Amino acid sequence: MTALALLLVSAVLTPAPARVQVGADEFSFALSRRTIRSGPAIIELVNYGEDEHDLALRRHAFRARTFRLQTTRPSGVRDLELRLAPGRYALWCTLADHRARGMHATLVVRRS
Ligand SMILES: [Cu+2]
Q1: Cα 53 to averaged position of ligand 1 atoms, centre (Å)
Q2: How many beta carbons lie within 10 A of that of residue 42, not counting itself?
Q3: Cα 52 to averaged position of ligand 1 atoms, centre (Å)
Q4: Cβ-based burial of 91 (10 A; exposed 0-12, middle 13-18, buried ≥19)
Q5: What residues does each domain of the chain span?
Q6: Which of 8, 36, 69, 74 is the one with CA 20 to 30 A from 14?
Q7: Please, which residues bridge with residue 95 across strands?
């Protein structure tokens, strides 16, 4: 098979990543969607606030990995590409007391 044919086959077989935008503000997260399918995903953090914020993401499971998007300045945007297994994920801001003040949310990943 030629390189071009291989490229076309992989483009057809590889699903487009699911996308979720997480809007941060003082002190809440607004998700563009609360449910996505499992597999490749892009999480985008957009800081609409006046303070810096970050984002941690962790599945409700024993020894689950914690994914992180770094601290983002006001008007800043960060993307994280990852693969998500089915389950419920906690999202929160790790800075200061932001989580306790309301910067947390839940994302549901269903089996694709
Ligand atoms: Cu924050």
Answers
A1: 4
A2: 14
A3: 6
A4: buried
A5: 19-110
A6: 69
A7: none
Q: How many CB atoms lie within 10 A of CB 9?
A: 11
**If pLDDT is split at 50, 70 and 90, which confidence band does 11 have?**
low
Identify the band that residue 73 occupies on the pLDDT scale cut at 50, 70 and 90.
very high
Instruction: Write down the H helix ranges in 1-112.
Output: 3-13
Q: Tell whether the model's pLDDT for residue 87 goes beyond 70.
A: yes
What is the whole-number distance in angstroms between the Cα of residue 23 and the centre of ligand 1? 11
Q: What is the mean pLDDT of residues 83-105?
A: 98
What's the full length of the chain, in residues? 112
Residue 1 has pLDDT above 70, yes or no: no
Cα separation, 58 vs 94, whole angstroms: 12
Distance 100 CA to ligand 1 centre (A): 10
Residue 102 CA, distance from chain mean position: 18
Determine the distance separating the centroid of ligand 1 and the alpha carbon of 40, expressed in angstroms.
26
Looking at CATH, the fold of the domain delimited by 19-110 is given as Immunoglobulin-like (2.60.40)
